[in-house]
């Protein structure tokens, strides 16, 4: 299969390229003008998804069998500060990609995976966990609203134009290389800095009571590949572990892996209102259609993320 990853310079793109290339798929990627992407065996194109004509030209040049659309403004906090840009990239950008598929000369059987987010479910009703794909999205922030919109447009285009569009709602994914604005990466980075003497032996934390569904990024990209091969057009799949874990227990595990005597202190700037106490994916559908289930334990993810930061801070 000839694959094209749009928006490959982010956290997930490198892992996905490695996964696809490792399984023999000829893979090309796109990045923004100023971004870095280092992977052997991979042609890199420059693309801004706000420019529809250049997407069409690229599709005609590459002629992909399957497109993974990862490009996004993926920060919730930036989505509050810049809702216009978030909507432009996540909604208009996705429309540009889908329209470019329809209008370019690429094979009509070519498929595309639109990456959405577990955030789309938003204010989950009490008792609705684990959340199935049929649950009505109630997005609680601008990022989530744009991703819910992306999923809706994907399903409408699949039906209206008979396109092979598949949607996922990916729950929290973690692993080495993730920015430390995300909780597991943040705690591991702080621990590594404490061990190397770069900060006092105190980890600053926000709310620890929320329960979230964490999946290793390497399992996530395996899910994307399997969905591309076996997923059904017009369908939406949850990608998650199916088990919510309390943030406090993750912190305990990380601190427990360090030889340093680490104290924990609440930092009010990290406190966010926890209006959704638990988010947990129901993964029956993806398992049924593709056989995917996560293989990497949270323990392993934490070990690898901690090692990543130990190497980085030294
Ligand atoms: O914002 P930047 O400079 O980090 O670039 C991001 C890029 N991107 C774009 N690419 C093409 N045209 C645009 N107009 C545009 N605006 C932003 O998409 C970044 O390199 C990439 C998305 O990567 P991340 O933000 O690291 O997301 P991640 O964790 O790889 O997640 C992949 C997908 C996203 O759709 C998330 O919303 C979803 O999974 O959870």
What's the layout of helices and strands?
Blueprint: E1 2-6, H1 11-22, E2 26-31, E3 43-46, H2 52-62, E4 66-69, H3 76-81, H4 83-103, E5 111-117, H5 142-161, E6 164-170, E7 173-174, H6 183-195, E8 202-205, E9 211-213, E10 215-216, H7 217-230, E11 236-239, E12 244-246, H8 247-256, E13 263-266, H9 284-290, H10 298-313
Parallel strand pairs: 1-2, 1-4, 2-3, 4-5, 5-6, 6-11, 7-10, 8-13
Antiparallel strand pairs: 9-12
Helix pairs in contact: 1-7, 2-4, 4-5, 6-8, 6-10
Write a structural description.
This protein is α/β, with parallel strands linked by helices and 314 residues long. The protein folds into 2 domains: 2-174 and 214-242 and 285-290, Rossmann fold, CATH 3.40.50; 183-210 and 244-278 and 296-313, UDP-galactose 4-epimerase, domain 1. The chain is 41% helix and 18% strand. The chain contains 10 helices and 13 strands. The chain has helices at 11-22, 52-62, 76-81, 83-103, 142-161, 183-195, 217-230, 247-256, 284-290, 298-313, and strands spanning 2-6, 26-31, 43-46, 66-69, 111-117, 164-170, 173-174, 202-205, 211-213, 215-216, 236-239, 244-246, 263-266. Strands 3-2-1-4-5-6-11 form a 7-stranded parallel sheet, with helices on both faces. A two-stranded parallel sheet has the order 7-10. Helix 2 (52-62) packs across helix 4 and helix 4 runs parallel beside helix 5 (142-161). The longest helix is centred in the first third of the chain and has 21 residues, at 83-103. It is globular and about 60 Å long. The protein starts with a strand and ends with a helix. Ligand A2R is lined by residues 7, 9-13, 32, 35, 47-50, 70-74, 89, 93, 115, 117, 170.
């Amino acid at each position: 299969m000839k694959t094209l990853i749009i928006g490959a310079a982010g956290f997930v793109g490198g892992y996905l390229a490695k996964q696809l290339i490792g399984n023999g798929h000829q893979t090309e990627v796109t990045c923004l003008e100023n971004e870095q992407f280092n992977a052997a065996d991979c042609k890199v194109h420059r693309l801004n998804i706000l420019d529809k004509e250049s997407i069409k030209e690229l599709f005609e040049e590459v002629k992909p069998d399957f497109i993974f659309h990862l490009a996004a403004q993926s920060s919730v906090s930036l989505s509050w500060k810049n809702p216009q840009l978030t909507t432009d990239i996540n909604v208009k950008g996705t429309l540009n990609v889908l329209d470019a598929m329809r209008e370019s000369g690429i094979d009509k059987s070519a498929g595309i995976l639109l990456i959405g987010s577990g955030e789309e479910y938003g204010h989950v009703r009490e008792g609705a966990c684990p959340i199935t794909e049929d649950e009505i999205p109630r997005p609680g922030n601008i990022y989530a609203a744009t991703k819910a919109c992306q999923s809706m447009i994907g399903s409408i285009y699949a039906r209206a134009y008979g396109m092979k569009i598949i949607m996922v709602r990916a729950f929290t994914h973690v692993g080495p290389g993730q920015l430390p604005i995300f909780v597991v990466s943040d705690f591991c980075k702080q621990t590594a800095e404490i061990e190397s003497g770069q900060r006092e032996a105190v980890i600053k934390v926000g709310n620890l009571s929320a329960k979230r569904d964490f999946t290793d990024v390497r399992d996530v990209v395996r899910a994307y590949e399997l969905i591309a091969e076996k997923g059904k057009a017009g369908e939406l799949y949850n990608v998650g572990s199916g088990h919510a874990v309390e943030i406090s227990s993750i912190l305990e595990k990380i601190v427990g892996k360090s030889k340093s005597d680490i104290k924990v202190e609440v930092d009010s700037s990290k406190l966010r209102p926890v209006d959704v106490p638990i988010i947990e994916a129901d993964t029956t559908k993806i398992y049924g259609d593709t056989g995917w289930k996560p293989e990497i334990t949270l323990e392993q993810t934490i070990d690898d993320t901690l090692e990543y930061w130990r190497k980085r801070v030294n």
